[in-house]
Design a protein that fits this description.
249 residues, alpha/beta, Rossmann fold, 4-stranded parallel β-sheet, 4 strands, 8% strand, binds nickel (II) ion
Length: 249
């Protein structure tokens, strides 16, 4: 059930049977020569929609801009500051909390978001503690799950892309987007070098210097829509389990 495709009456009825919500969160940033700028948000959205369907869970609006300052050396990338993302998460949770949602399952598509989203959760809990309870007295709980850390995502990454997964613009994430939007799939052939270098970075200029085509450690030329389907089919049941355990905890 998707929030943006529901009426307020449907949301009210949903809240009679559940206080849980899945919120996809990603990023808008370059993903190498054949990866879509929206990769991280698209992946989060695809997994969230499937979890929503399988677990009868409400799926909230996608947070599709995240922590991407290091990608600003490439055209099309958009970032928030950490303080802005913290404010966005706090306000979204507070808005939804007012209606009765109390279990916030952030389904994440971008590793760079984790530290800031976790800091936002700390702000939310601090507010609750300092104010001796939120207005409606709900005990709010928030969690963030990275889809690529699901056991089957790790296994398939080894099986399908042995040693060429890398950490940015990975064949796994690009495959999931090609499955979701086959018409947007790019064919750029072999990349040079075939597997991109690994390493750290600081700001956008430093990142572009170290990773000139945008990839880190990956060979996304291996991405296909079929692999994307395999990954989605395997990972969704594990995320459904994680969501159900979170609600039950
Ligand atoms: Ni990504």
């Amino acid at each position: 059930m998707q929030l943006h495709l529901s009426t307020w009456q449907e949301v009210e009825a949903y809240l009679q049977r559940s206080r849980g919500i899945v919120i996809p969160i990603g990023s808008t940033e370059q993903h190498g020569p054949n990866g879509l700028i929206g990769t991280d948000a698209i992946c989060a959205e695809v997994f969230a929609r499937e979890v929503g369907r399988a677990a009868d869970a409400m799926v909230g609006p996608t947070v599709n801009v995240g922590m991407a300052q290091h990608h600003l050396g490439f055209a099309g990338s958009v970032t928030l500051r950490p303080s802005t993302l913290i404010a966005v998460i706090r306000d979204m949770v507070a808005s939804l909390g007012r209606h009765g949602f109390a279990r916030f399952f952030f389904l994440n598509g971008h590793g760079g978001n984790v530290a800031t989203v976790t800091a936002a959760f700390s702000e939310i809990y601090a507010e609750a503690s300092l104010q001796a309870g939120l207005p409606n007295g709900l005990d709010l709980r928030c969690t963030i799950r990275n889809w690529w850390e699901a056991p089957s995502a790790k296994r398939l990454s080894r099986e399908l892309f042995a040693g060429e997964e890398g950490s940015h613009a990975t064949p796994s994430e690009v495959s999931v987007t090609y499955f979701a939007y086959p018409e947007a799939a790019k064919s750029v052939g072999e990349m040079t070098p075939r597997v991109a270098p690994f390493g750290g970075f600081t700001d956008a200029a430093d990142y572009r210097r170290r990773f000139p085509d945008g990839r880190i450690g990956s060979n996304p030329a291996l991405a296909t829509a079929a692999h994307g389907k395999t990954i989605v089919d395997a990972v969704v049941p594990e995320l459904v389990d994680a969501y159900r355990s979170f609600l039950a905890a």
